[in-house]
Design goal:
The protein contains five helices and 16 strands. The protein is of the alpha+beta class. This is VOC family protein.
């Protein structure tokens, strides 16, 4: 396990990502081909669900929406919690909403909830028991960063500070309204205000970054697999990035890491 994976266990830090899709088989085929993931059945609370594995260790989850739920698909960032019930109450007290749970996973791996911040960005809470979160990170095919994209950070950063204990640090090199969220002095996530550029069809949302060995090659593979390129490869202070969507429209960012 890498140091980063261990750091992500701190309460409040992103620890897991999960996707709800319309077609489990099509989604597994896409990410299996793109990242080399293999899949094994997971808890079936809301329908079919599988965990994605890379070299035998969990990296993400993929579930299937009920046929009558015509919702846009998206990746959900889960934040670690020492007590999901306490976190859920804090979310409500600070102006957020809890839409699901808290409830125990039916395979006894932990306790979870789904909530949203005051600006509507959806996120999960995970109180790990036997599954603490992503077991591989910092290498190709794994989630390596999570960032809240919102209209302006000032309207929502107090919520995350109060609920999860984040400290915020401005990042001038990442834009005029960009923050790093820190726990015990360690950067664990980001927050970026984009003003009128916030996508109308998505609103405020958490973005998942996945590592790839070569961004441009991965972008070509995304299109070959039926996905789309939303923001072409570009160099940034965080490396070479591209924002893409999978074959069902779930948006994520890829970043080049060896």
């Amino acid at each position: 396990m890498t140091t980063e994976a261990a750091t992500r266990r701190m309460s409040g830090a992103p620890c897991w990502v999960s996707l709800l899709a319309h077609s489990m088989s099509a989604t597994q085929e896409f990410y299996g081909a793109l990242f080399g993931w293999e899949f094994r059945p997971g808890p079936q609370h809301f329908g079919p669900y599988a965990r994605a594995f890379l070299d035998g260790r969990e990296v993400a989850g993929v579930g299937e929406l009920a046929p009558d739920r015509h919702l846009p698909v998206s990746w959900t960032t889960y934040l670690a919690s020492d007590d999901a019930d306490v976190a859920a109450e804090q979310i409500r007290c600070c102006g957020g909403t809890v839409g699901v749970g808290p409830l125990d996973a039916d395979d006894d791996t932990g306790r979870m909830a789904i909530g949203s911040d005051p600006q509507g960005a959806i996120f999960g809470i995970w109180q790990g028991k036997t599954l603490m979160g992503t077991a591989r990170t910092g290498e190709p095919g794994t989630p390596v960063w999570n960032e809240l994209v919102t209209r302006d950070t000032g309207s929502v950063s107090p919520f995350y500070e109060h609920v999860f204990g984040f400290e915020t640090e401005p990042v001038a090199s990442a834009g005029p309204d960009a923050l790093t969220l820190q726990l015990k002095g360690q950067p664990v996530a980001g927050m970026r205000g984009v003003g009128a550029d916030l996508p109308r069809d998505r609103g405020s949302h958490w973005m998942t970054y996945f590592a790839v060995p070569h961004t441009d090659a991965a972008v070509r593979r995304v299109t070959e697999l039926g996905g789309q390129v939303l923001h072409a490869p570009r160099d940034s202070v965080h490396g070479r990035l591209a924002t893409v969507a999978d074959s069902e429209g779930a948006v994520f960012t890829i970043t080049q890491q060896g």
